[in-house]
Write a structure and sequence with these properties.
Number of strands: 30
Strand content: 25-35%
Helix content: under 10%
Shape: elongated
Radius of gyration: 16 Å
Largest sheet: 10 strands, parallel
Order of helices and strands: EEEEEEEEEEEEEEEEEEEEEEEEEEEEEE
Structural class: mainly beta
């Protein structure tokens, strides 16, 4: 493993083979990084975070306590994940994305730059969000949903399998869309 200058690793952290941590990274207690993970300068991981093999975090990313990232996840610069967020394998977040607590991206999801997900959001496999999308609390997007840039969903919205919204669409609270 390669550690940059002024890195802080608290007790019981485990780093897999080939990990690289940039300067000023901090890992709280009991963090586990799989093989070949890369953390950019200034990344902070809360307690008991787990990163699968091949994960990459851009500079200044912050993960809250108990976050889990599957294999080959990639976070752009300045992403922030609150406590208990889960990203399945092969998820990608653009620069500046923010996820509220207990968000779950099942696998192969892609968020553009500066997307915001409220607490408790769930995105099923292969969902895609364009840049600047905002989802309120407790939104659910079904398998292969696609949102264009600058879409905004209120709290408790639910989109069914294969739903697509064009650029700039806005849905209020408690909306349900199906592909029928």
């Amino acid at each position: 493993c390669t550690l940059g200058s002024r890195c802080g690793l608290n007790f019981r952290c485990e780093l897999g083979d080939g990990c690289t941590l940039g300067d000023n990274c901090t890992l709280d207690r009991c963090c586990e990084l799989g093989s070949d993970c890369t953390l950019g300068d200034g990344c902070t991981l809360g307690g008991s975070c787990e990163l699968g093999d091949g994960c990459t975090l851009g500079s200044s990313c912050k993960l809250g306590d108990y976050c889990e990232l599957g294999y080959n996840c990639a976070l752009g610069r300045c992403c922030a994940l609150s406590n208990y967020c889960t990203l399945g394998s092969d998820c990608t977040l653009g620069d500046g994305c923010t996820l509220g607590s207990r968000c779950r991206l099942v696998m192969c999801c892609e968020l553009g730059n500066n997307c915001t997900l409220g607490n408790g959001c769930e995105l099923y496999s292969h969902c895609t969000l364009g840049d600047e999308c905002k989802l309120g609390n407790n939104c659910t997007l079904g398998y292969e949903c696609k949102l264009g840039s600058c879409c905004e969903l209120g709290d408790c919205c639910e989109l069914g399998v294969n739903c697509e919204l064009g650029d700039g669409c806005t849905l209020g609270d408690n909306c349900t869309l199906d592909n029928d």
